[in-house]
Amino acid sequence: MAGLDRDGTFVDTVLKGWNGGHVLNLAGVSLRLALYTSALSANFSQVNPVYNVAPLNVGEVVGPGYDPGGKPLTQVIAESGTAPGTIKFTASPLAWPSASFIARGYLIYISSMANKAFQVRCFGVDLPVQDGTFTLNFHVNGIWSVPLVGPVVAL
């Protein structure tokens, strides 16, 4: 990937969760969200992806109102998705007051599991804030949504 241009989930993190390498219990882990510029270049097939370790050590937002490491996600819940046959997880909105920076997307990582990287989301455009509040409201479909039921197969 050449810069932050897509959403993605780190395959290694999900596989290890499914195969017992670690537990992805949303109620039992601490998740953080770090903002990034277009300089982030994530490899979603990377083994053991970790926040602030190459290549995830390049492109984190710098500027007034933003602290390295981002903010903790609060009120994280997993529930049925808005579309039939889906599950999602979501969290409370985040805000960075008195901020001046430009963000292109974010990285969610599991701080209680040695900063294991979970997911990157791209806003699609650079979002600037100048001496104001940068607020991140999550989509009604959640931060992450997975379809569990496929389409009807024609026989």
Structure description:
The chain has 155 residues and is mostly beta strands. It has 1 helix and 8 strands; from the N terminus they run βαβββββββ. The strands form 2 sheets. A 5-stranded antiparallel β-sheet has the order 1-7-6-2-3. A 3-stranded antiparallel β-sheet has the order 4-5-8, with no helix packed on it. The model has no long low-confidence stretch (mean pLDDT 90).
Give me the count of strands.
8
Q: What portion of residues belong to β-strands?
A: 35-45%
Order of helices and strands: EHEEEEEEE
Main sheet, how many strands, which sense, barrel? 5 strands, antiparallel
Mean pLDDT: 90
Sheet/helix structural class: mainly beta
Give the C-alpha Rg. 16 Å
What is the overall number of helices? 1
In spatial order, strands of the major sheet run 1-7-6-2-3
Task: Specify the overall morphology.
Answer: globular
Cα separation of the termini: 39 Å
Low-confidence stretches: none
Helix content: under 10%
Count of individual domains? 1
Write the layout of secondary structure elements.
Elements: E1 8-9, H1 11-18, E2 31-36, E3 71-72, E4 77-80, E5 86-90, E6 94-110, E7 116-136, E8 144-147
Antiparallel strand pairs: 1-7, 2-3, 2-6, 4-5, 5-8, 6-7
